Amino acid sequence: MSNKILITGGAGFIGCNAAARFIAQGEQVTIYDNLSRHGSHKNLQWLSETFGPTGFDFLQVDVRDAAAINLAARNKNIILHLAGQVAVTTSVVDPRTDFEINAIGTFNVLEAARLNGDNPIVLFSSTNKVYGKMETATSLLNESRYQYSNYVMGIPETYPLDFHSPYGCSKGSADQYVRDYARIYGLRTVVFRQSCIYGPRQMGVEDQGWLAWFCIAALNGNPITIYGDGKQVRDVLYVDDLIDAYQAAIQRIDTAAGQVYNIGGGPSNTLSIWSELGPRLERLAGRLILVSYADWRPGDQNIYVSDIRKSQRDMDWSPRVSVDDGVQRLWAWAASNRSLFE
């Protein structure tokens, strides 16, 4: 018997990839999206072309609409909550909208799940930004990158929370609400504190989706600005591996319910944002790529790497796509879909 799955933000980058996976597996998928995100119309069109207009249900609504999400959640046994305001810079300019979407929107989803009567599984896309600037995670700088001196396996889920930036506050509030609804109401929630996710259908822009943005800019000859010194390190995770983690949590929900997981590429899949990515893109482009530099952005971390051992232990999950393979796949997709970025 197929699952009835509601995906908020289902026309976004992660959402449309998750929807495609679930639809292909025969699940009944409802996409809930207000289509405000750059590229969402194109992702929805791609899903329709791939699976046909009857392959899934679509609701053009906003998570800030409590009545709409209550109605959409009825009879769903899995809710994948991906909708959100996703950029730190945008949150600094407009903190009220950021809060309403990320905090109140998530509260609306949780209440809809609690009240629909079916005790659905709720998976929430949180962020590593809930850890703030992580002053106690000391780092060293070598020629091309920062590296931890005291967290060699990455940041664990037990690291102290420190909501830095309006985005960090709104997502952090949502993160804690999702966790607490498991404790107080017995809702089967799972929090994924995600690191840098990348892959096809990511319409990266300068303030969010940096890896895709750099690929697109390099292909189209657009100017690239590096904020900071370009040696900042992130663990990067290919989107297919992330969806594998979602499915692993669903399959092992008796263990995963109420838990928080740091989900990223881990220590084996790290990349400095330009000193190491830049040469890779230059090899793929076959030319030198010129960049300019600007000041660090608020709340930016000079290094973030996820400790993924808890998810490996609880869900038998590990990334399978290497950095080199993933970057090549993303470049190939962007190169063959340049019309999407015009």
Short description:
With 342 residues, this protein is α/β, with parallel strands linked by helices. The chain has one domain (4-341): NAD(P)-binding Rossmann-like Domain (Rossmann fold, 3-Layer(aba) Sandwich).
Keywords:
7-stranded parallel sheet; globular; 4-stranded mixed sheet; 342 residues; Rossmann fold; alpha/beta; 40% helix
Kindly describe this structure.
This protein is of the alpha/beta class. The protein has helices spanning 13-24, 40-51, 66-73, 88-93, 95-115, 166-185, 210-220, 239-251, 253-256, 277-285, 309-315, 323-336, and strands spanning 4-8, 28-32, 57-59, 78-81, 121-127, 139-141, 146-148, 188-194, 196-198, 224-227, 233-238, 259-263, 270-272, 291-294, 303-304. The chain contains twelve helices and 15 strands. Strands 3-2-1-4-5-8-12 form a seven-stranded parallel beta sheet, sandwiched between helices. Strands 9, 11, 13 and 15 form a four-stranded mixed beta sheet that branches. Strands 6-7 form a two-stranded antiparallel sheet. Helix 5 packs parallel to helix 6 (166-185) and helix 7 crosses helix 12 (323-336). The N and C termini lie far apart (42 Å).
Report the mean per-residue pLDDT as an integer. Answer: 95
CATH topology: Rossmann fold
- Give the radius of gyration: 19 Å
Measured between the Cα atoms of the first and last residue, the distance is: 42 Å
User: How do the helices and strands follow one another from N- to C-terminus?
Assistant: EHEHEHEHHEEEHEEHEEHHEEHEEHH
Shape category: globular
Residue windows where pLDDT falls under 50 for at least 5 positions: none
* CATH level 1 name: Alpha Beta
Number of strands: 15
Give helix % range.
40-55%
At the fourth level of CATH, the homologous superfamily is: NAD(P)-binding Rossmann-like Domain
Number of helices: 12
Strand content: 15-25%
What summary fits the major beta sheet? 7 strands, parallel
CATH architecture: 3-Layer(aba) Sandwich
Neighbour order of strands in the largest sheet = 3-2-1-4-5-8-12
The structural class is alpha/beta
Q: Number of folding domains?
A: 1
